[in-house]
Amino acid sequence: MNDSFEVTQAKKIKVNENIINYLNSDYIYIPLIKGMKLHKGNELSLLKNDLVLKGSEYDIYTPVSGTIKAIDEDIYINNEPIKAIAIENNFKEEVKTLKSATKYIDDLDPKKVLELIDKYNILNIPINPKAKTLVISGIEVDPFERNNTFIINNYSSKILETIDALINIFHFEKTYFCVTDSNSEVVYNLTSNIGTYPNISLKVLNNSYTLGFESVLINKLLTKKELKWKYNYLTCEDVLNIYRILKRDNPISEKLITLGGNALEETKVLQVKLGTKVGDIIKNNAEIISDKYLVVQNGLINGTVLKELNNIVTMDTRSIFLNTKDTRKEKKCINCGLCMFKCPVGLNPKLIKMGKGDKSKCIHCGACTYVCPSLINFKKYLGEEHE
Ligand code: SF4
Ligand code: SF4
User: Fold this and answer.
1) Residue of minimum CA distance from atom 2 in ligand 2
2) Distance from the CA of 220 to the center of ligand 2, in angstroms?
3) What percent of the chain has pLDDT over 70?
4) Whether pLDDT at 312 is above 60
5) What is the mean pLDDT of residues 159-184?
6) Where does residue 300 rank: exposed (0-12), middle (13-18), buried (19+ CB within 10 A)?
7) Strand 200-205, strand 174-180: pairing
8) Domains, the chain
């Protein structure tokens, strides 16, 4: 078992230095989640950040100002059809009143911080205030993505200020900020700025695939004792979102995504509205150089091929790639053992393909499929898509 492998092609990707906004799609879509109620009833006009859907655990706000037009039944999330509220964007970004910003976020009390994180539902796993360790990952999940790199290059002072505030508010005893050595700019940026934050330990790890997965990074980083003490794990984007809600007490309305792939002229990191259709993003931002492509969401190594361009951006969308289809044929296994050797959780994908192995520990990283010289696609045997 090996926990990683290098993906050399990723080093060649260059992205924009400054933010590229795509905030003006004509419509954005809010998923109608079962059990949630339309808050405004018959009122069709909305200001940005107005409450649209009220739920028992969290609420959903509109990322644009505009008008509710219809319930659209031809919308998808991760290829699953959903019903969604279509809001026509009036491009005015009108808000009720501009709230004043919190000056020092580390003056906030723990209850207020947890309350705001919960209110705006920005983390999949809430912060555990009793944990002693905080782990921040600046490592991309997929080596062709550039979201965390972009965030560190553009927002490092805000990120470090927020991490320091979280340490002071929750009294975490140990904090690791993890990056890899693949991006010297990121490492330089952090080493130049981290000096004023003695409570944050910068960990520069050898660049390798699967370190962007929480379980792999945690196993590599934390001692048994630290694991026993419990930990909180946040990505750089989580930290940036925490900064924004603590500063402004407003919902998150935008999402950073990497738009790239070999069918495109260049890779870009875009800021888009939550609820934007993938098709609108491609139409308005992609310089396509090859028309025979697949649209892949959330990574070239472990992503999902989108069957519909009416899939929408959610908080979990990290990237959209337009890549030419690999037409090479699968060959016979040559028993090289790479698929097993590169599996970060010690599985034997060949056995799983034969219906024999236990696949419950699989983290769906796609490493086995990526490294196989015989082009054997294990995804279908691991309970994923076929392409
Ligand atoms: S996809 Fe699953 S089986 Fe394949 S390398 Fe990753 S964890 Fe192992
Ligand atoms: S990596 Fe491919 S060729 Fe090598 S043992 Fe695994 S299935 Fe066979």
Assistant:
1) 372
2) 26
3) 94
4) yes
5) 95
6) buried
7) parallel
8) 8-96+251-324 (no CATH), 105-248 (3.40.50.11540), 338-382 (no CATH)
